[in-house]
Amino acid sequence: MPDEWLTVEGxxxxxxxxxxxxxxxxxxxxxxxxxxLSSKKKISLNGIERLDTAGAALIIEFIGIERAKxxxxxASELPKEQQALLVRIAEAMEVPLDIPPCTRHSITDAxxxxxxxxxxxxxxxxxxxxxxxxxxxxLIPLLLRPHRWRFTATIAHIQQSGLNAVPIVALLxxxxxxxxxxxxxxxLEDFGxxxxxxxxxxxxxxxxxxxxxxxxxxxxxxASAFTAQLGAxxxxxxxDALQAxxxxxxxxxxxPRVIAMLVSLPLLAFVGMLSGLLGGAVVASLSLDISLTxxxxxxxxxxxxxxxxVGLSKAPVFAFVIAVIGCLEGFKVSGxxxxxxxxxxxxxxxxxxxxxLIDALAALFFMEMGW
Amino acid sequence: MTHSNxxxxxxxxxxxxxxxxxxxxxxxxxxxxxxxxxxxGEILGVxxxxxxxxxxxxxxxxxxxxxxxxxxxxxxxxxNDLSEEQRSQVERRFGVLFQRGALFSSLNLQENIxxxxxxxxKLGREEAEYLARLKLSLVGLxxxxxxxxxxxxxxxxxxxxALARALxxxxxxLFLDEPTAGLDPIGAAAFDELLxxxxxxxxxxxxxxxxxxxTLYAAxxxxxxxxxxxxxxxxxxxxxxxxxxxxxxxxFQGPRGRAAQHAHQN
Lengths: 371, 266
Prior knowledge:
The structure holds two protein chains of two kinds.
Chain A: E1 6-9, E2 12-19, H1 24-34, E3 42-51, H2 53-63, H3 65-69, H4 71-74, H5 80-94, H6 106-143, H7 151-161, H8 166-189, H9 197-235, H10 238-244, H11 249-287, H12 292-302, H13 305-332, H14 337-369
Parallel strand pairs in A: 2-3
Antiparallel strand pairs in A: 1-2
Helix pairs in contact in A: 1-2, 2-5, 6-11, 6-13, 7-11, 8-9, 8-11, 9-11, 9-13, 9-14, 11-13, 13-14
Chain B: H1 7-10, E1 14-25, E2 28-39, E3 43-48, H2 54-62, E4 69-74, E5 77-78, H3 84-91, E6 94-97, H4 109-119, H5 125-138, H6 155-166, E7 173-177, H7 185-202, E8 205-209, H8 213-219, E9 222-227, E10 230-235, H9 237-241, H10 246-253, H11 255-265
Parallel strand pairs in B: 3-8, 3-9, 6-7, 7-8
Antiparallel strand pairs in B: 1-2, 1-4, 4-5, 9-10
Helix pairs in contact in B: 4-5, 4-6, 5-6, 7-8, 8-11, 10-11
C-alpha cells in the first residue's frame, strides 16, 4: 500500500516524505492505523525528506525508544543530522512525559476551598489591623518632627488623587443629586409635600451621599492606583532596595499617600455635597417650580450645621482606610503581572466594602446619639 | 527546522543578510551602514560594549523595530517588502529567547510552550502539551515542572524554559539575547553545551547576543563585533581576537578574556 508518508510491503516498513509539525494530524492517523509494530519488521527511514522534533517524536513513539536510540546502527545511510535528532529526541523521551492527572473530589474540594477562603479572610483582616498599627506607629512620632515631612511627595499625591478627581466627583454627585430630587418629587407629590424635596436632597447629601460617593470614587480611582504603583515597585525589588538602604518604606511611600488622602477626601466630600445640592436645586427650579431663593431659604432654615459635620466627620476615616488598604495590597504583590491584577482588584473591592460597612455602622451610631 | 538530505550543501549559505542598516533614536545614531551575515547552521556570537546596539540589531532583524534604512534579508526574502500575513509566515520560523525569559506569567510552563503549537500549528491541546513536555525534556527540564508557573522558577530554569518555548515550532533561526546572563557558571556552561547539542541535532542557525566570553569560546562558530555603529569584524574567534582594534584587544586580551581563553584551551 503506497502512501504519502508510510509504505508497508510484507515485513518492510518504509517512512517517506515530510515528517514535520505541519502534517502532525495526518501522520498521527497514519501511524495509528498501523497498530502495534512487531520487532521483526524491517524499518527504512531513507525516504524521509524532512524531519523535525514533532515528526521524530511520532516515529520514536511508533518504533520504540530503544530502537530509535540505535538509529546510527541500522539506518546509517540517514543524514547525520537526522540521526542525531532521532537519538536526541529518544533520549528526551526516556523520562516519562505523561504527568499524573490531578484527581478532583468535588465535595471535599469545595469544603476545603470554603475553609481556605475563610482562613484567608481572617488573616487578611489581621494583616490589615497590623498594618494600620504600623502606619499609626510611624505616623505619630513623625508628626513631632516636621523636618522629616515629605512635602513634595505629599503634594504630588494630593494633586493626583484629590485635585484631578474634582471634575468626576462633581459631575457624579451633581447627577445623583438631580436623581434624588426627581425621586423625592415623585413620591412626595402625592402628599402635596413637594417642597420637602429640598430637605430630602440636603439631608441625604450632607449626611451621606456627598462623602460616600466621593469615598467610593476614590476607592476605585486611588486605592487601585496605590496598589498598582507599590505592586510594580515591589515586583521590581524597589521596596527591598529601600529597606536595604536603611530607609523605611512606610515613611517614604505609605505616609505621603495616607496624608494626601486625609487632605483630599474631606475636600472632595465637600465638593460632592455642594455639587449634589446644586443638582437638586437645578431640578427643583426647572421642573418642580421651586425657585433658587426658596431652595436656599429652606436650606438655611431647616438644616442645622450638625448634618454637615456628621457627614464630614466620616471623610478622614474613609480616607485612612482606603489609603491603607491600597498600600497594603500593593505590598502583598509578588512577582508576576497576574499578581498585580489580583491585588488591585482585591484592594478596590475591600476598600469599597469597608467604606460602606463603616458608613452603615456610623449611621447607626449617629442615630443612637441623636445627632 | 527543515533540513533536507542536501543540508550539507546548504552550509555557509546566508539565512540572514543585513546590508546598509541604519537605526536612529531621535538624534542618536545607533547603527550606520551596518552589514552582517548569518550562515546556515552556524552559531554567530554578537559582542560589543554596552550601548552599541546589540539588542537593537536583534530587534530589527526579528521585526520588533523598523530600521530607518537598509535591507534585511531573512531566509531569502526581504522582510520589509512583505505583507503582514507573509511576514507572520516568515516570523513563524524564528525562535526568540528574550533576555529575561519573557515567559507568560499567567500560563504554566507547558501552556507557555503549547501556545504557539496550538495557535500556529493548529494542534489539539493534549497533543500540543505532550510536545511541550517533550521540549521541556529536550532542554533538560523534568516534565514534572510542566505545571509550574514561571514565578516559581529559578533563573536557570527560566532560561531553559524560554529556550524550550523558542524551539516550540522548530525554528530555522534562533535568536538569543544574553542567554547566560544571570546564570551561575555551572548553569551557563551547561546552557552552552545544550545549545551546541541542540544545534547539531536540530540544525538551526543561531544569532547569539552575549557578554559571556566563555560562551564565545564554547559555543560560537563565528563572532561579530559591534563597534563604531557597525560590525567591525566578523570571523572565527581566533582571528577576531587578534584583530587590531583597541576595544577588541581590551575585550579579548583583558584578564577575563585571557582566563576564558585559557580555560577553553585546557
